[in-house]
Structure formats: C-alpha cells, structure tokens
Amino acid sequence: MIRVAIAGCAGRMGKTVVEAVGAADDMEVACGIDPHGSDAAFPVYPDVEAAVGGTEFDVLVDFTQPDVVAGNLAVALPAGIDCVVGTTGLSNETLERLAQTAAGKACLFYAPNFTTGAVLMMQFAKAAAPYFPEAEVIEFHHANKKDAPSGTAVRTAQIIGESRGFESSAPGSETEIAGCEGARGALVDGVPVHSVRSMGYVASQEVVFGSMGQSLTIRHDSWDRTSYMPGVLLGIRSVGEQEGLIVGLENFMA
Ligand SMILES: NC(=O)C1=CN([C@@H]2O[C@H](COP(=O)(O)OP(=O)(O)OC[C@H]3O[C@@H](n4cnc5c(N)ncnc54)[C@H](OP(=O)(O)O)[C@@H]3O)[C@@H](O)[C@H]2O)C=CC1
Ligand SMILES: O=C(O)C1=N[C@H](C(=O)O)C[C@H](O)C1
Predict the structure, then answer these.
(1) 122 and 193 share one domain
(2) Is 36 marked active-site?
C-alpha cells in the first residue's frame, strides 16, 4: 500500500484526488493538509510539518496554491518524502533548488498538466513549432483560477520556444499603433499567451500556428477534474523508484 498525504484536500482538485486515491487498490489516504480541515475519515492537519510529525506517509500530493507549495515541499523533501505536485506557478529554478533539498532521498515530480490530452497537445506543438514562424497560445480557465498565465500555457510556450530554434516573426506584445496595453497577450519565451477566465470553463487551451496562407490549431479541453486523475495516480505509483526533479507526465507515460 502506498500511503498518500494530500495537501489542499478540501480544494477542487484535492477533493477529487481524495476520491481517486481512496478508490485505488494499491494506495490509501494517510492524511490531508488544509487550513480549514474537513469532515473526512482521515486526519487533516493545518500544515505539512504537523502532518509529518503526526502520520506516516510515503508520498505528498500537492494541489494548493502558488504561494504555499514551495513551503510544503521545503518540509517534505528533506524528510525523504516523494512529492507529486500539480500546483502551478513555481519557476524551473525554484523547482531545481527545492529538489536539491531532498539530497537524493526523494523525488520531486511536477506536472503542469496531468491529462494525457494536454501532454499530447504539447508534444504536437513541439513537432509543429519548427515549421511555423508564428505561434500563439490561448488558455481558457474557470474564473476562480488564481494564477495567469496557466502552468500549461507557460510550459507550452517554453516548448515552442525551445523547439523552433528561431526568433519569432510575431509582433509580440507591442502593437504598431498604440491601443490597449495587453491586447497582444503576455510574451512567454517569445510566444504571446492570452488568458481567458470564465465560469463556463474547467480548463482548455488552443495553440495557434501560422505561416503564409495557412494556420494550424491544436486544441485540448478538460471538461471534468476526473480527467487529471489517471495521471496523478501514475505519478504516485512512479515516484517511489525515482529521485531528483522530474517535470512532465510524459516521463512516465508508456
Ligand atoms: N497540474 C494539473 O494538472 C492541475 C493543476 N492545478 C493547480 O492546482 C492548484 C489548486 O487548484 P484548485 O484545486 O482548483 O484550487 P483550490 O483553491 O480549489 O484548492 C486549493 C486548496 O488548498 C488550500 N490551502 C491553502 N493554503 C494551504 C496550505 N498552507 N496548506 C494546505 N492547503 C492549503 C485551499 O484552502 P483555502 O481555499 O481556504 O485557501 C484550498 O482548499 C492550482 O495551482 C492549479 O493551477 C489544477 C488542476 C490541474
Ligand atoms: O487551475 C486549474 O484549474 C488548472 N491548472 C493547471 C494549469 O495552470 O495549467 C492545469 C490545468 O490547466 C487546470
């Protein structure tokens, strides 16, 4: 049995992870971590330090918020606890620094998106990028999302920037004639990224490539948070055999 602690267990993703872990044959919810607690059948602690002191567990899953996750990892990793992180907003440099605190005793696995569809969208974008001088990302999320742009959009833009190997001919975030600031999006690694927030969405993204006379649009939609659960469970099952920093679910997909 893999004993799993879930940080953010009372949140939108945390609740779904509690159900998925509880339904899996090879794992159990050891405890939760959330400032408001819950009426759950497992202990819920106010912070990770209290959880480490109060309950034994093998893996910490984190779906909290950008200003919380680094503190959680700074406690769990030096204690030798493998971490599966979905919380977005941490830079690559911060992830690398935190992974080093595990000193080879634990794995830090971060996936900006746990759906297979979004991973494939990013891989298709990587393949397309060298052939199109123009690329833009439009992401659509529910109105309660705290960060913008999304972690998936940032990762997609980084992949496009790395893969295309040339400077974009897109105008970037400037317009030739001054209009409204931000109309051309935020530039991430030379790729304009546009963030839409509406109660109508869970999470969607379009990657729009262009060259003379043609465009290619790659789109992914998450309609329900259960879409992330196979990826989260795969991460929990995989980290025990790993150490150091691993970024992206593609590392574990067969
Ligand atoms: N990688 C992926 O595939 C996905 C990543 N995400 C990311 O996961 C994160 C969470 O998203 P979502 O579930 O929608 O957010 P929610 O706001 O619904 O959930 C976050 C939970 O964490 C709680 N929390 C706040 N502070 C702490 C703390 N110090 N310790 C433990 N828990 C704390 C919050 O409590 P309170 O509300 O009281 O502050 C809340 O219950 C976001 O960064 C989002 O981008 C989301 C979906 C998929
Ligand atoms: O906050 C969300 O909901 C999501 N966050 C992740 C992100 O920032 O990319 C993953 C997914 O898009 C849902």
Answers:
(1) yes
(2) no
Statement: residue 39 has pLDDT above 80:
no
ipTM above 0.95, yes or no: yes
Q: In what order do the strands lie in the sheet containing 244-247?
A: 44-45, 27-33, 2-7, 59-62, 82-85, 107-110, 244-247
Q: Report which DSSP code applies to 77.
A: T
Q: C-alpha angle with apex 249: 229 to 132, nearest 5 degrees?
A: 120
220 C-beta closer than 6 A to ligand 2: no
Mutate to test the pocket of ligand 2, among 85, 87, 147, 152 (most ligand atoms within 8 A of CB): 152
User: Domain of 167: which CATH number?
Assistant: 3.30.360.10
- Kindly report, residue by residue over 72-81, the tens digit of the pLDDT: 999 999 999 9
246 has pLDDT over 80: yes
Query: What's the gap in Å between 177 CA and the centre of ligand 1?
Result: 40
What distance in Å separates the CA atoms of residue 71 and residue 164, rounded to the nearest whole number?
Answer: 35
- DSSP-derived secondary structure for 183-223: TT-EEETTEEEEEEE-TT-SEEEEEEEEETTEEEEEEEEE-
pTM for this predicted structure = 0.95
113 is in an annotated binding site: yes
The CATH number of whichever domain residue 88 belongs to comes to 3.40.50.720
105 in active site: no
Are 64 and 11 in contact by the 8 Å Cβ rule? The answer is yes
Q: Both 146 and 231 in a single domain? A: no
Range of the domain at 69: 2-110+225-251
**Model pLDDT for residues 133-176, shown as the tens digit of each residue:** 999 999 999 999 999 999 999 999 999 999 998 777 555 556 67
